[in-house]
Every structure is written in structure tokens, then in C-alpha cells.
Amino acid sequence: MNDSLTAALAPLSEAEPGRPLVIAQLGQSLDGRIATPTGASKYINGPIALDFLHHLRARVDAVVVGVGTVIADDPQLTVRRVPGRSPARVVIDPNGRMPKTAKCLTPDGAPVYVIQSPGNCDSCPGEAIPVPSGPAGIDPFDIITALRAKEMHRILIEGGAATISRFVAARALDRLYLLVAPVLIGSGKAGLELPPIAELSEALRPSTRSHVLDGGDVLFDCQFEPQREGVR
After folding, report:
1. Which has the closest alpha carbon to 178: 226, 210, 214?
2. Top-level CATH class of 42-195+204-218?
């Protein structure tokens, strides 16, 4: 592993064993895009950035994605590019939309969980975790609590951008790893989209360190203060 990745991963490697952590990772262009207008997104970030993502997967108990990411990208959510075990795979799918042919359902020894509204769990393709959904959808903290009840304490929110944005807006993250590629797309889907604010004093200002990766990607390690003591 090169020095930049070692430095970026140090907060996770040095964290107290068993300490609950909720982290997210998002890759984007210099102008904040995660895909072109046609949805093309492979690969905005370079191979070292992808290595970093697999290092994160190898260091958590569960990797979480929304069902939209499964439908659009069909990710495997396994550890393949670096040494380490694959974590449990968790799909947020309140209404039972996940295809039964999704790659993340491939049996390989890692458990698969599906977060669903209580009334939609009968034909779940993985192990259903019923979590009530409110007017704004499923509360990120309810998801965290449900996963911790199953002994998943280190959690990676991997995608998509809407899911990560919901966790950021809820102040449900300990860290956000934002990987910025040296490319300008100019149009297309934006990365983080948070509720509007009126004043800059309302903006989130996480404690941030940056790491320049081989190939030109810049990794911003953004550390947030806990918002709710009950889930930390």
C-alpha cells in the first residue's frame, strides 16, 4: 500500500477495536459530478481511488447502498482489489424493487440484508430487516440502530449519492471520504445535494484533511462531530 493510502486509512486502522463508526465514500469530478447526463460514471476516479474503496470495505462490518444503485450499477460490493474479507452487504429497499438477479445477491459467504418497510418483507431476496418508513423515508439513524442490533458496528455508506446525502443531512456520519478526480464533466448528475440554507453560517464545516493519491485524485477526509449521543 502506498503512503497516501496508508495515511488516509490511519484513522480507521488506529480506531479503538469495536468502536462504532459510520463512514461514507463518494467519488466525483472537480465540478462535483458523479455521472454524465446519460448516466455514464465508470470510471470518473482512477484505480488508486478504487483501491481505497476496497480497503474501506475490508475494514467494515457492513457496506450499505440504496436500491437505486443496485438497479443502475449492479455492484458486487465485495473486496477484490486488496487483501481482506468482504463485509455484509446491505441494500436499502423500502418497496421491494431489488432484482433477484442482482450481483450483490451472489452467494459467497458474506450475508446479505435488505432494509424494507415492514409490509414488504415477504418476498425479500436476502434477510429482511424491517424498518418503519416515515413521510421523508427511512430515518438513517433507524438504519444504523437496526444494523447495530445485528452486531454490525462499523458501517460504510457507499451509495448512491442520494443515500449518502441523506446520511450527511441527518448528521448520521462520523466521516465522509470525498474523492475528487482531476476531470471536468460540465453537466450531469451532481454528487451531494443537501437541504438549502440561507446563510453560510449554517454550512457544515467538518474537520478535513486532504491526501493526493497517485494518478491525481485528491481524497478529502471529512470528520463530523456526533449529532445524537444515543447512536454513537
Report:
1. 210
2. alpha beta
Residue 190, φ and ψ in degrees, nearest 5: -80, 160
Residue 196: φ, ψ to 5°: -65, 150
Contact 81, 51 (CB under 8 A): yes
Interval 117-130: pLDDT, tens: 887 666 678 899 99
SS3 224: coil
pTM, whole model, 2 decimals? 0.93
Q: Would you say 66 and 160 are in contact if contact means Cβ atoms under 8 Å apart? A: yes
Angle at alpha carbon of residue 176, lines to 45 and 62, rounded to 5°: 90
Q: How many whole angstroms separate alpha carbon 44 and alpha carbon 27?
A: 7
Residue 84 Rama label (left phi>0; alpha psi -120 to 50; beta): left
The residue extents of the domains of the chain are 42-195+204-218
Give yes or no for a contact between 59 and 13, defined as CB atoms under 8 angstroms apart: yes
Query: Is 229 a residue whose pLDDT tops 80?
Result: no
- Percent of the residues in the chain that have a pLDDT greater than 70, as a whole number: 95
Predicted pLDDT of residue 175: 96
